[in-house]
Design a protein that fits this description.
This protein has 424 residues and is an alpha/beta fold. The protein contains 13 helices and 17 strands. It has 2 domains: 122 residues, Rossmann fold, CATH 3.40.50.720; 225 residues, Dihydrodipicolinate Reductase, domain 2. The strands form 3 sheets. It has a 9-stranded mixed beta sheet, covered by helices on one side. Strand 2, helix 2 and strand 3 form a beta-alpha-beta unit. The longest helix is centred in the last third of the chain and has 19 residues. The structure holds nicotinamide-adenine-dinucleotide.
Length: 424
């Protein structure tokens, strides 16, 4: 069988997928595209080290006309849907980085492009495939915990100091325009996949940005919370953003079910997973504390991929799904689940802007639910085509960024420095 020919758009984060593809037995990295020369140079170096011939492009249209079966989109987070649609129309399967769409209308357009194409769309929400969350997904899916009634997901990642490298000092960069609920799928995604029920209602919250963090220009809120109710009544709390908690286990998940609880560890010196399980008797059960062995083994040549192996699985299951293999069909995240995860953030913003009103989460698997949302283009990103710009918060920004701030961030970026203080 010949290998799948795959290209990668965006060679920053895209390098992670490049590494998987360069070492995967069923795939071949054939092309990479990035319009930013230094980043493309880095991709070329990585490919050259493996001795594999990969064509480099700076122009997307030329890249798209390369002879290939599929593309990985690791471009700007608010531009995935239009690029996915262009790729699907050109006959390529698509693996998309987070997030799936910038507006609810784009989510419908994406779903319909996938349906019309008959091609594979997979969502690379790698936090669903961590050693802990993927094990929890297997165990909850097996039914051993019964119905889940409550769950928590936390993706706590303060990137304030990384601002120069993450935004290059570009004031139009998507990371300067997101609202606190935008980047919601690392915390919410695993809750939805593990429980396997769809969300029906969302309420959004914005945590205040006190003290030091609040003085950094352009920092909207300390973090975002989505309180999501699922179709079975389960309530999920998804928390993500810039709280102070460094260290490897600042990403946590908890599931409370009818027969017990699953919790990830919060400290580095304890096992990865903690599971409490009850038998027939009320309030009587056993704990297990363990580091799970992956139920689906990683391929040795690709095992060194990032985020504790999770980056391997999102790309691997995409390949497996294109090839029609059972693991890909079972575990790859499809376009309906992807859009649902992503629009929960948009709806959480709408809830906040309405003073906390719960928002219905439409089920776009039903075609009749699409029409009322076809022109729903609310976004906080100025670059979104036909976007309807809405505020990021009901609160006034205490410290709006000005050109001086962006100049400072750009100078740090050029010097390869981090943002360690905000006294500018
Ligand atoms: N899943 C994860 O753990 C994780 C981690 C980091 C980033 N991400 C996601 O990966 C994506 C990329 O993030 P990043 O950190 O690399 O930063 P980024 O968004 O700044 O980088 C995007 C890259 O794509 C290139 N690009 C964008 N549009 C292009 C076009 N039309 N033609 C050619 N090149 C284009 C840019 O030059 C840039 O190098 C984002 O969507 C982000 O959400 C995911």
């Amino acid at each position: 069988m010949s290998k799948l020919k795959i290209g990668v758009l965006g060679a920053g984060r895209g390098k992670v997928m490049m590494k998987v593809l360069l070492n995967h037995p069923d795939a071949e990295l054939v092309a990479v595209c990035d319009s930013y020369e230094p980043v493309l140079e880095g991709a070329k170096k990585l490919a050259d080290e493996t001795g594999i011939n990969v064509t480099m492009y700076s122009d997307f249209e030329k890249f798209l006309s390369h002879d290939m079966d599929a593309v990985v989109l690791a471009n700007y987070a608010h531009q995935h849907a239009p690029y996915a649609i262009r790729a699907l129309k050109a006959g390529k399967h698509v693996l998309s980085e987070v997030l799936p769409c910038a507006t609810i209308a784009e989510g419908i357009e994406l779903i319909e492009a996938v349906e019309e194409s008959g091609l594979v769309y997979a969502y690379a929400e790698n936090y669903c495939y961590r050693q802990d969350t993927f094990e929890m997904w297997h165990r909850v899916k097996s039914g051993e915990f019964g119905e889940i009634s409550y769950a928590e997901g936390a993706y706590v990642h303060d990137t304030t100091h990384e601002r120069p490298a993450l935004t290059l000092g570009d004031k139009d960069h998507w990371r300067n325009h997101g609202h606190v609920n935008f980047y919601c799928t690392h915390s919410l995604g695993p809750l939805l996949t593990v429980i396997g029920k769809r969300p029906v209602s969302v309420m959004g919250y914005e945590l205040p940005n006190f003290g030091r963090g609040g003085k950094v220009p352009g920092r909207w809120g300390g973090a975002g919370i989505e309180m999501v109710t699922l179709e079975n009544g389960c309530v999920c709390r998804s928390l993500h953003g810039w709280l102070r908690r460094e260290g490897a286990r600042n990403v946590n998940y908890v599931f409370n079910g009818d027969f017990g609880t699953l919790e990830t560890s919060r400290f580095n010196d304890t096992p990865i997973l903690n599971v409490y399980k009850e038998g027939d008797k009320f309030c009587s059960g056993e704990w297990e504390h363990y580091d799970p062995t992956p139920r689906i083994p990683m391929i040795d040549s690709v095992a060194a991929s990032g985020h504790g192996g999770s980056d391997f699985y999102s790309t691997h299951f995409f390949i497996e799904k294109i090839l029609g293999r059972p693991d890909g069909l079972e575990w790859s995240i499809d376009v309906y689940d992807a859009v649902e995860m992503g629009i929960c953030g948009t709806l959480a913003l709408r809830s906040r802007l309405q003073g906390g009103v719960p928002q219905y989460v439409p089920n776009f698997r039903n075609k009749e639910e699409r029409d009322p949302y076809r022109n729903d283009r609310d976004t906080t990103h100025p670059g979104v085509e036909n976007g309807n710009l809405v505020p990021r918060s009901l609160n006034a920004d205490p410290n709006p960024p000005d050109d001086k701030f962006y100049d400072y961030i750009r100078s740090l970026y050029k010097e390869g420095k981090k943002l360690h203080s905000y006294d500018i």
